[in-house]
Amino acid sequence: MAKLGIMSFAHMHAYSYAAAINELAEAELFAIWDDDAARGKAAADQFKAPFMANRDAFLASGLDGVIICSENVKHRAMVEAAAKAGKWILCEKPLATTIEDAQAMIDVCKKTGVGLGTAFPCRYVAPLMAAKEDLDSGRFGTIYAAACTNNGSFPGGWFADEKLSGGGATMDHTVHVVDLLRWMFGKEVTKVYCENGNLIREGIGTDDVGSLHFEMEGGIKVSHIASWNRSKSFPTWGDVTMEIIAENGVLNVDAFNQKVNVYNDTAMKAEWVPWGDNADLGLVSDFAAACDEKRDPAITGYDGLKAVEVTVAAYKSAKSGEMVSV
Fold first, then answer.
1. Gyration radius of the chain's alpha carbons
2. Is 43 in contact with 69 (CB distance < 8 Å)?
3. Domain residues for 25?
4. pTM for the whole structure
5. In whole angstroms, how far apart are CA 278 and each of 36, 97, 123, 255, 284?
6. How high is the pLDDT of residue 282?
7. Contact yes or no for 210/313 (Cβ under 8 A)
8. Which residues are CB-contacts of 15 (< 8 A; sequence separation ≥ 6)?
9. What b-and-e string marks burial along 184-197, b requiring 16 or more CB atoms within 10 Å of the CB?
10. pLDDT at 271
11. 208 in the same domain as 250
């Protein structure tokens, strides 16, 4: 059984990962550490795990692996500390806010001999897995283009502070789609054009909408909208959609359409209740297995780096007004 710890509950995904660990017979939520002690203690109470106030003591407590869910700019320091303590690591996306930090994280894990994974749970969503299987079968033939979205609600807090997040919706909601494109197509992004800005919510310190255009190996053209455009009353946090145009047909994927429409008179709004698979459970299950088997997680640090490269290029493009090579 893998003894797992969570470093920081700054990112909301930490809560779903903790719940997933508690569902798995092959993993144990062994300890929690957070540089915000009040937040960490509250999470420890919620998930019935010990809270450790001292980071070094946490890393020396017998853990097999850690899941890092801090603010984006803190990822590198936490990965370096965990790697030097010999722990397997699953890091929340984006892996880092700069290419240099992402590469340094990969390098320290290689040097210390520990596995490094990037948290891209969308690879464990059944509709996306089925779409990849269809593409891999060859029945759609050559892929020509794709139109993608990753729209969501504004997460608030440190996400709007560029000193902690490294960027806004373009960073937050591009890396998922880039990872899916690389995984599903087996191709790399070669060029990026991006226009973005603060168009929806006044007064936040980052972009909340990004319109991106990619070129991929083989001449594949991709459009992508990354945004925090969902209202507070929207039934769910957002979406991941893909329309893939290929030689032998068009493949449409709505990743999170496994839901029941509920009209809630208590909340006085419509709600979507999911009935489908738990992508976070698949992600955490693989990480637990990687810790036990002393192998890299299925979605590696290199995968995280490639998504960061595209996002960094997107911000360069938005600033320069030019298409940027990756």
1. 19
2. no
3. 2-121+280-299
4. 0.96
5. 28, 27, 11, 12, 10
6. 97
7. no
8. 9, 43, 46
9. bbeeebbebbbebe
10. 86
11. yes
Residue (of 241, 239, 197, 237) closest to 223 by Cα position = 241
Q: Which residue intervals of 200-326 are DSSP H helices?
A: 279-293, 301-320
Total domains in the fold of the chain: 2
Kindly state whether residues 26 and 160 are assigned to the same domain: no
Number of H-type helices and E-type strands within the chain = 10, 14
- Within 13 Å, how many C-alpha atoms sit on residue 166's CB side? 24
- Which DSSP letter does residue 294 get? T
From residue 234, alpha-carbon distances to 177, 241, 273 in Å are 21, 17, 12
Query: Quick one: which of 119, 205, 195, 192 has its CA closest to 154?
Result: 205
| Average pLDDT per block of 10 residues along the chain, 326 residues long | 98 98 97 98 98 98 97 98 98 98 98 98 96 98 98 94 97 97 98 96 92 98 97 86 98 93 86 88 98 98 98 98 98
In this structure, the answer to whether residues 163 and 255 fall within a common structural domain is yes
Q: How far apart are CA 70 and CA 162, in angstroms?
A: 14
| Contact indicator for 208, 199 with CB cutoff of 8 Å | yes
Q: β-strands 209-216, 269-274: how paired?
A: unpaired
Q: Are residues 167 and 313 in the same domain?
A: yes
